[in-house]
């Protein structure tokens, strides 16, 4: 399979480390080569566009120019983060639609010795690549530990299916792509009508009360459908739902404890890979209990090292036969 | 961060917004149906729904629009944009209003400061830097919220989900040249 260029985004090696680890592990299994774009810069998230227009598009387009220069036969630039994916697609689309913006952005790029011809690249989200290029049949063939009995709420967040400039997803509100993939892994995919409702985006920073209400709705929805966990495709959604779940509980007096994992982590588990290699355990709301439903034992949450020898617990039941090694410990 | 000088001083806000929106704004096509506000997940916290903003814009009530919290409460979910029967690029219009509000000094200060601080980080390193952004923004605007953030920060640090140091791209000078040229272009329009 041809190589894809990867635009990892700023969260890839930090807050979304579990996403990076699991994507790497899953792609190795599938023989999918993701070549990281060199010297990429931040896409500006939702912030740079709020401050200025031409500079925001120039900032995004520098990455497109780099990708076009480094593509070496690869037409596809893939982004695992929904926000990066949106910004890259947005710039590509608007430069094509608006010749005057295209001219300005390209004159700015010239100042850095760069150029981008809109439409040169196909910009696609990782989920789209896995579902449509790798395909469900290949994915099914790699499943050695089906996720039967694990109830998963498929959560896509806003920006994959909206505004969907190049019409790659099935529906703006109720796209079925993630459901199909999770079902291929054997998971019990619950109905989740809120699958593309907003996680609050940057509002956890600048207007927490607005964000908490949006997060509460999502967590409540997942609970109503008795989901053991929420599967996400975006580092921003994961961060908001996972890291701020405690704050949501404090704010509303609720007791949500729904782990939020990346869909690639679930793929890795279904492929029989080691939980640790998939970044399981990096989530703040632990997934241990949820993953016990599929018989996956996860490393215990990080805690202070214990001092002294561990005492063997006296058996309270009937005497049981034991192997000699057991007694030596 | 240096903002582009106000483009087209003397323009009405409606005209300025139309110029800033990267695709035709189609604001004159709005039929005031309210699909936008009805679809908006954060409308409850807005001073005006998007529909009301468009009515104010067309009525020339520029100050009300520039001082409204609406574009700053917008979560950029694009729900309104895909539902608008008149295909008005509502989310992009919200960005345009924010740009102009900042340039005309009318922006909601805290929210605008978050965006500006983020932009500064990007311009310094070429990458975003969460820890730097959070500490600088909270120290200045919400110092009392900082202690409450500590457990979250520690949890993220313990799992190595937050960098202590920013990452700088190699060609940060080239990036700055590009952004500077883009700002001049923006000012000239």
Question: How would you describe what is shown here?
Answer:
The complex is a heterodimer of chains A (329) and B (189). By secondary structure, chain A is of the alpha/beta class. Chain A folds into two domains: 4-126, Glutathione S-transferase Yfyf (Class Pi), Chain A, domain 2 (Up-down Bundle), CATH 1.20.1050; 143-292, Rossmann fold. Helix content of chain A is 44%, strand content 8%. Chain A has 15 helices and eight strands. Chain A has helices at 17-30, 47-51, 54-70, 82-97, 99-110, 126-134, 136-142, 177-184, 203-206, 208-224, 235-243, 245-252, 263-270, 288-292, 324-328; strands at 4-6, 34-36, 76-79, 122-125, 151-154, 188-189, 229-232, 260-262. A four-stranded parallel beta sheet of chain A has the order 2-1-3-4. A four-stranded parallel beta sheet of chain A has the order 6-5-7-8, sandwiched between helices. In chain A, β1 (4-6), α1 and β2 form a beta-alpha-beta unit. In chain A, α3 crosses α4 and α10 (208-224) crosses α12. The longest helix of chain A has 17 residues, at 54-70. The termini of chain A are far apart. The mean pLDDT of chain A is 93. With 189 residues, chain B is an all-alpha fold. Chain B folds into two domains: 13-103, Fumarate Reductase Iron-sulfur Protein, Chain B, domain 2, CATH 1.10.1060; 109-188, no CATH class. Chain B is 58% helix and 0% strand. Chain B has eleven helices and no strands. Chain B has helices spanning 13-20, 35-39, 50-58, 62-67, 70-73, 79-83, 90-103, 109-125, 130-141, 146-158, 172-188. The longest helix of chain B is centred in the middle third of the chain and has 17 residues, at 109-125. Chains A and B meet through α2, α3, α5, α9 and α10 of A and α6, α7, α8, α9 and α10 of B.
Descriptive keywords:
heterodimer; A: about 325 residues; alpha/beta; Glutathione S-transferase Yfyf (Class Pi), Chain A, domain 2; Rossmann fold; 2 domains; four-stranded parallel sheet; 15 helices; 8 strands; B: about 190 residues; mainly alpha; Fumarate Reductase Iron-sulfur Protein, Chain B, domain 2; 11 helices; about 60% helix; disordered N terminus
């Amino acid at each position: 399979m041809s190589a894809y260029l990867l635009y990892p985004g700023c969260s890839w090696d930090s807050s979304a480390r579990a996403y990076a680890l699991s994507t790497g592990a899953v792609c190795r299994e599938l023989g999918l080569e993701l070549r990281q774009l060199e010297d990429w810069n931040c896409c500006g998230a939702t912030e740079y566009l709020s401050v200025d227009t031409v500079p925001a598009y120039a900032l995004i387009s520098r990455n497109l120019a780099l990708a076009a220069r480094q593509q070496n036969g690869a037409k596809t630039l893939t982004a695992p983060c929904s926000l990066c994916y949106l910004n890259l697609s947005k710039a590509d689309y608007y430069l094509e639609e608006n010749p005057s913006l295209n001219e300005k952005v390209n004159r700015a790029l010239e100042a850095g010795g760069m150029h981008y011809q809109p439409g040169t690249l196909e910009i696609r989200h990782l989920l789209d690549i896995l579902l449509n290029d790798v395909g469900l049949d290949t994915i099914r063939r790699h499943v050695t530990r089906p996720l039967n009995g694990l109830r998963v709420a498929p959560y896509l967040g806003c920006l994959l299916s909206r505004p969907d400039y190049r019409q790659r997803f099935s529906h703006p509100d109720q796209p079925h792509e993630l459901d199909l993939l999770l079902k291929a892994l054997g998971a019990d995919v619950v109905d989740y009508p809120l699958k593309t409702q907003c996680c609050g985006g940057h509002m956890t920073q600048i207007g927490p009360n607005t964000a908490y209400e949006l997060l509460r709705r999502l967590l409540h929805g997942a609970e109503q459908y008795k989901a053991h966990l929420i599967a996400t495709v975006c580092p921003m959604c994961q961060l908001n739902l996972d890291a701020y779940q405690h704050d949501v509980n404090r704010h509303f007096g609720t007791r949500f404890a729904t782990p939020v994992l990346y869909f690639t982590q679930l793929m890795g588990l279904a492929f029989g890979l080691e939980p640790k290699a998939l970044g399981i355990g990096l989530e703040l709301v632990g997934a241990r209990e949820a993953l016990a439903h599929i018989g996956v034992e996860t490393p215990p949450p990080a805690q202070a090292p214990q001092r002294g020898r561990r005492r063997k617990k006296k058996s309270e039941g009937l005497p049981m036969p034991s192997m000699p090694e057991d007694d030596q410990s | 961060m240096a903002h582009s000088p106000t483009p087209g001083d003397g323009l009405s806000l409606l005209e300025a917004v139309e110029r800033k929106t990267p695709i035709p704004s189609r604001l004159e096509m709005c039929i005031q149906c309210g699909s936008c506000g009805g679809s908006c997940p954060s409308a409850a916290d807005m001073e005006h729904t998007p529909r009301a903003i468009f009515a104010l814009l067309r009525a020339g009530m520029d100050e009300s629009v520039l001082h409204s919290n609406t574009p700053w409460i917008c979560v950029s979910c694009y729900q309104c944009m895909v539902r608008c029967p008149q295909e008005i690029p509502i989310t992009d219009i919200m960005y345009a209003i924010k740009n102009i509000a900042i340039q005309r000094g009318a922006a909601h200060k805290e929210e605008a400061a978050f965006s500006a601080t983020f932009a500064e980080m990007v311009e310094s390193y070429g990458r975003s830097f969460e820890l730097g952004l959070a500490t600088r923004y909270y120290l200045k605007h919400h110092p009392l919220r900082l202690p409450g953030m500590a457990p979250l920060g520690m949890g993220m640090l313990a799992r190595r989900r937050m960098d202590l140091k920013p990452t700088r791209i190699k060609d940060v000078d080239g990036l700055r040249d590009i952004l500077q040229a883009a700002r001049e272009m923006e000012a000239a329009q």
